[in-house]
Design a protein that fits this description.
Helix content: 25-40%
Low-confidence stretches: none
Mean pLDDT: 96
Radius of gyration: 24 Å
InterPro entries: Ald_DH/histidinol_DH, Ald_DH_C, Ald_DH_N, Aldehyde_DH_dom, ALDH-related_metabolic_enz
CATH superfamily of the largest domain: Aldehyde Dehydrogenase, Chain A, domain 1
EC number: 1.2.1.9
CATH class of the largest domain: Alpha Beta
Structural class: alpha/beta
Shape: globular
Strand content: 15-25%
Largest sheet: 7 strands, mixed
Family: Belongs to the aldehyde dehydrogenase family.
Number of helices: 15
GO molecular function: glyceraldehyde-3-phosphate dehydrogenase (NADP+) (non-phosphorylating) activity
CATH topology of the largest domain: Aldehyde Dehydrogenase, Chain A, domain 1
Pfam family, one: Aldedh
């Protein structure tokens, strides 16, 4: 069957531009070529940055109501074309069509939340008279946009994570230049289409696909870029932090997420939630469940139920609504996961289900008895593999949960509120989900972690705060006390 290959354009300062140089985008399920995308040059990136700065200077006091209007129109466009967006996500990435539709829904919400938060970029009054001698002074602070934002996005949520960069930037009056993941650039370009259709002033948005080595470093180091917002791996994040220089940085760098299941938990709910949290998006999820610590009195019951439920997961054609799990993003990543699992098995781990690879497909896999020396015990697997541990008590579970260089999100299942609060106080993470797995998030909440999981917080309101600066205003009123 002949399939038409799409030739895409890149979005430079609000204008769709062709390129002599292109790179190929493949469907990871069957390695089918689906599109040719412009391979941007350094000159393209420089143009996008410079035009972003021009647009920002041209609209230094861009009215709030206009920003709200653009965001709502963009959300309307995505909603009107939601099946097209879902098919794009599923075609270029790993998600099933059902998961892709869910991501489109979230992206629409992210953009609409940003429109609402644009109304609430407020300051507050300051009591200057708290200082002796300042009785005649009165003032406040307000927040102002910082300029041009540079954003680098990953492949695993190719639409919503791009929306999490663009929408808060527009809501706060900033220009933004996005370099999307090279394996999944189509969703980002399609989101750019929504903002062009919404009437976003030219220059405020560029989507520049291409090589990280060629254009990514330029985006990070250019002095016009006032903030770098990056979602991706720890190694790349550390490199960007060293390159960026004196500018704002927001980074979400992944995790090795733990979930604790205590003996008083609702076992069925814990199993169902943890299976979903482990294997949604083929485990390619920064808050996906990787380690589960189960109190020893219920370990066998949980283990058996978890393995049985995992074995029921249907892996296959991601475009079928009946499929639970599609392929990984490419065969190389599947081979990496396979290698990590084999290393753990060599060191004494046991496999309870799964463990087989077929091209880019890797079965949902459950391991036990994984030694601390195994790579998979300490690093982020970013694949459909989960580790089960039996623990004596809550303190033991928390100690082991904290014993990694990550701290994004965690979950605990318990009916004991005191144990829940003990966990909240002692777990080294950015978010605790009580009676949910680590894989729970809404787009309005502050999102981020500690240690190797990143810097700062995302979530619409948190992103807007990062993308703005407070300016203090103080009046010295000479006749104030007449």
């Amino acid at each position: 069957m002949y399939t038409k290959i799409i030739t895409e354009k890149m979005l430079l300062a609000g204008v769709w531009v062709e390129s002599q140089r292109t790179f190929d985008v493949f469907d990871p399920q069957n390695n089918r070529l689906i599109a040719k995308v412009p391979l941007a040059t350094k000159d393209d990136m420089l143009f996008a940055i410079e035009k972003g700065q021009e647009a920002f200077k041209k609209h230094p006091f861009w009215p709030t109501h206009e920003r709200i209007s653009v965001l709502n129109k963009a959300a309307d466009y995505v909603e009107k074309n939601r099946e097209r967006y879902a098919n794009t996500i599923a075609s270029e990435g790993s998600k099933t069509i059902t998961e892709a539709r869910g991501e489109v829904k979230r992206a629409i919400q992210t953009i609409r939340i940003s429109a609402e938060e644009a109304r609430r970029i407020n300051g507050e009054t300051i009591n200057f008279d708290q200082k002796e001698g300042s009785e005649n002074r009165i003032g406040y602070y307000y927040r102002f946009p910082i300029g041009v934002i540079g954003a680098i996005t990953p492949f695993n949520d190719p639409l919503n994570l791009v929306a999490h960069k663009i929408a808060p930037a527009i809501a706060s009056g900033n220009a933004i230049v996005v370099k999307p993941a090279s394996v999944t650039p189509l969703s980002a370009l399609l989101l750019g289409e929504a903002f062009v259709h919404a009437g976003l002033p030219k220059g405020f948005l560029s989507i520049v696909p291409g090589s990280g080595k060629e254009i990514g470093e330029l985006l990070v180091t250019h002095p016009t870029i006032k903030m770098v917002s990056f979602t991706g791996g720890l190694e790349t994040g550390e490199k960007i932090a060293h390159q960026a220089g004196l500018k704002k940085i927001s980074m979400e760098l992944g995790s090795n997420s733990p979930v604790i299941v205590l003996e008083d938990a609702n076992l069925n709910e814990a199993v169902e939630s943890c299976v979903s949290g482990s294997f949604s998006a083929v485990g390619q999820n920064c808050i996906g469940v990787q380690r589960i610590f189960i109190e020893e009195s219920i370990y066998k019951s949980f283990r058996d139920a978890f393995v049985e439920r995992t074995s029921q997961m249907k892996t296959g054609d991601k475009m079928l609504e009946s499929t639970d799990m599609g392929p990984m993003i490419n065969e190389g990543e599947a081979k990496r996961v396979e290698g990590w699992v084999n290393e753990a098995l060599y060191k004494g781990a046991k496999i309870l289900t799964g463990g087989k690879r077929n091209g880019a497909f890797y079965e949902p896999t459950v391991l036990t008895d994984v030694p601390e020396t195994a790579v998979i015990a300490k690093e982020e697997i970013f694949g459909p593999v989960v580790l089960l541990y039996s623990v004596k008590n809550l303190k033991d579970a928390i100690k082991q949960s904290n014993d990694v260089n990550y701290g994004l999100q965690a979950g605990i299942f318990t009916k004991d509120i005191e144990k829940a609060f003990y966990t909240i106080k002692n777990m080294d993470v950015g978010g605790i989900m009580v009676n949910d797995s680590s894989d729970y998030r809404i787009d309005a909440m502050p999102f981020g972690g500690i240690k190797g999981s990143g810097l700062g917080r995302e979530g619409v309101r948190s992103s807007i705060e990062s993308m703005t600066e407070p300016k203090v205003v103080c009046f010295n009123l000479q006749d104030y006390q007449m």
